[in-house]
């Protein structure tokens, strides 16, 4: 993953993420095809979420269902980490995420 993108996801810096997206609009697409964890996977484990701007939410919506190398989606990771507010925000993007199954067949609520 791009080091700056990883840092922004880790720090929960929406402003920095938007600057990266402005300078490189395809950065999230490249990351999604070259790494196992998306920036959203990293951010939700730490209790961060890109909310507030339509541009950030549209990018998050595109990767909410992606599984990482261990077979977990961002909502599985947020639930397992106990970040209820992040789970609620993800469900605000799509209620269908609560039915998403990991590679083991567990939904986010069963996973937690």
Task: Give a description of the structure.
The structure is a single chain. This protein has 112 residues and is an all-alpha fold. It has one domain: Serine Threonine Protein Phosphatase 5, Tetratricopeptide repeat. Helices cover 58% and strands 0% of the residues. The protein has 8 helices and no strands. Helix 4 (39-45) packs parallel to helix 6 (74-80). The model has no long low-confidence stretch (mean pLDDT 75). ANK repeats lie at residues 70-91. Pfam families: Ank_2. Keywords: ANK repeat.
Which terms summarize this structure?
single chain; 112 residues; mainly alpha; Serine Threonine Protein Phosphatase 5, Tetratricopeptide repeat; 8 helices; 58% helix; globular
Brief synopsis:
This protein has helices at 3-11, 14-23, 27-34, 39-45, 54-63, 74-80, 84-93, 108-111. It is mainly alpha-helical.
Count of extended strands? 0
Radius of gyration, rounded?
13 Å
Tell me the CATH superfamily: Ankyrin repeat-containing domain
Which geometry do the CA atoms define? globular
Total of helices: 8
End-to-end separation: 27 Å
Quaternary organization: single chain
ANK repeats: 70-91
Keywords: ANK repeat
Pfam families: Ank_2
InterPro entries: Ankyrin_rpt (IPR002110), Ankyrin_rpt-contain_sf (IPR036770)
């Amino acid at each position: 993953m791009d080091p700056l993108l990883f840092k922004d996801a880790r720090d929960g810096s929406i402003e920095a993420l938007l600057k990266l997206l402005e300078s490189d609009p395809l950065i999230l697409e490249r990351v999604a095809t070259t790494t196992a964890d998306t920036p959203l996977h990293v951010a939700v484990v730490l209790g961060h979420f890109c909310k507030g701007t339509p541009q950030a939410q549209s990018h998050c919506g595109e990767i909410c269902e992606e599984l990482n190398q261990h077979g977990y989606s961002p909502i599985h990771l947020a639930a397992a980490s106990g970040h209820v507010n992040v789970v609620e925000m993800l469900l605000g993007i799509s209620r269908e995420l609560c039915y998403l199954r990991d590679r083991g067949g567990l939904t986010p609520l069963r996973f937690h």
